[in-house]
Amino acid sequence: MWRLNAAWKLLKIWIDVTKARKRGNKPMNKPLVFAHRGASGYFPENTIPAFKEAVRMGADGIELDIHKTKDGQLVVIHDEKIDRTSNGKGDVKDFTLEELRKFNYNATHPECKEAPIPTMREVFELIKPTNLIINIELKTGIVFYEGIEADILAMTKEFGMEDRVIYSSFNHYSVMKIKELDPTARTGFLYMDGTLNMPEYGKEHGVEALHPALYNVQYPNYVQRCHELGLKINTWTVNSKQYMHMACEMGLDGIITNYPDKALEIVNSYNWD
């Protein structure tokens, strides 16, 4: 019931900002479009085909998730287990990279016949020649992968992409570890439900952005307060066109979506200053 009420409140916000737009108020800033786990509405999530499609569509960036294998390799996959997205079973941490490569990660789009699990290195190699940003989510909320923060910072530096990476996590200790190791790294706190004073919390801990679930933007003065404190708002997962419009008209800074083509069409339909 709470989720339903939240949806209605978001719809009301959208109606209000639409009325404001009709009165002549322009949207505040053009949001970036991030392909959530790649163009995952069309290709298997967190795979090279999904990332290639995001590049082809012209997304501003990709969002992805990293875990660490038994032999210390950084791999791109959302869940701690491989069960949902592949034809295998078990925890990522219990497999070597070679063992993980034996499975096919096309379960979310079986029409794509082959989708190996990618390493983070392979994604960097794909994205480096483009102008895309990479939002790297560290999946450390359940498994505390030893040294994962240092590993990903070192790899980012190896590819010379420090200015094109945003690090985020639901585990805010991981985000703080990133900041400890590299104070110049761009970071964002991921979160979901009902956290008090998030703009102040983000500012206090020195992150550059908040990454709220979409329904969190309905809190009174949330967007205004974030921007007053110099925080960007990159929200997820925005898949319906009405909420893509709402994100534009509320002045959010990033739209994380499974459908980057649809979001880009809507973003580009506005006259931005």
From TrEMBL:
Pfam families to which the protein is assigned, alphabetical: GDPD
GO biological process, alphabetically ordered: lipid metabolic process
Family matches, as InterPro entries: GP_PDE_dom, PLC-like_Pdiesterase_TIM-brl
Domain GP-PDE, chain residue ranges per copy: 31-267
A GO molecular function held by the record: phosphoric diester hydrolase activity
This protein's name: Glycerophosphoryl diester phosphodiesterase
Species, as recorded: Pseudobutyrivibrio ruminis
